[in-house]
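Listing S7. Sequence submitted for prediction.
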Amino acid sequence: MPRVFITGLGFITSIGNNADAVETSLRELRHGMVRYEPFKADNIPVKVAAPVAGFKTDGVDQEDWVIPAPYVVKREQLRSLSANALYATCAFQQAVADAKLSPEDVSNDDTGLYAASAGSPAMLGHQINRMREFGVMRCPPLGVVASIAGTVQFNLVAHFKIKGASTGFSSACASSAHALGFAHDEIALGRQKRMFVVGAEDGNTETILPFAAMRALSINPDPETASRPFDTGRDGFVGTGGATVLVLESEDEVLRRGVAPYAEVLGWGQASDGHNVAISHPDGAGLASAMRRALKASGVTAADLGYVNAHATSTPIGDASECKALRAVLGEHASRVAVSSTKALTGHGLSLAGAMESGFCALAIRRGFVPGSAHISQLDPICDGLNIVRATQPVSPGIVLNNSSGFGGANVCVVLKPAS
């Protein structure tokens, strides 16, 4: 089967809006958390979020948005965008330039796009309220495509003239990892030569605060410690938004174009918990199964792994479940394989998480470092036997496993290795 490589990355994140800024944040453990102004009301228990810097997208009128240089989005394009689709558009421009793709490389029958996002609750709410208050004919004509869950792929496919396979994935926090896995398969099965993989979220009040009623968000008001996966004091996740775009290409395309890949996507696996609509299996059964399937599909074993980028969101139940799954899969290698959660720095990007963290892994592989797991003051005993690295290590991670888990017990694991 054709080999699949990552040849381009684009980042709009809470820890940086390009690969160099992201690398610096990961190496130096610089987080993107702030006391979020929209959460200042006394009746909102959550105070911390990890917003994207440089953009101003808090209004529903796209012409009021502020888009930083060097990004240019035409006025006619803006009308159909939500905040997450704007972030994705800018990350897409980045990834195309990073991969050195020509317009012909982007737009042809052999290039497709898979995306993941929850849509824009803020934009959707505005459209529905306007319809009820003023009538159906007073809503913007493009209000639907600017707000529903498919807005990211609708806009990117249209604006960048994508002609190959395209669709969106909806498995909550596993969504963009699913997009990456199935994009790998499109190339490995010879159906496409190139795939764009996109994860994007608004990361605003309407996207984040609904999780407060689930008691899933941290109510720690200190940005320095609110997101602390694996720590005994963790009390929930910190929400974030932005976008990440990965360019996947076949080996033939890599050789034809003479580009240097970030990493090879060896394979992936998925499995479900079959347990609870919102809570991880207490023993991490589904995640363990997904990890084993990913290793088998990739032709490697736990002995080959150098690093695991954990899903660990900083929730008490979820982190504990993943630790149990990791011990079960890593076995005798658990004390050697480095494990960290970059969500300590970025916050949790929901459906963005899988693509964003796979991008971090690809960057770490190419540039030779293992991201540390920040903000741990007292390691939870549930992590005993695991090699939770607290400081970034200036060494190559080797073969990497990236974990993602979503509602309903959806688990997706992706294996990456240095390109050779």
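Caption to Listing S7: primary sequence and predicted structure tokens for the chain studied. Residues 83-99 form the longest helix (17 residues). The domain at 4-417 is CATH 3.40.47.10 (Peroxisomal Thiolase; Chain A, domain 1).
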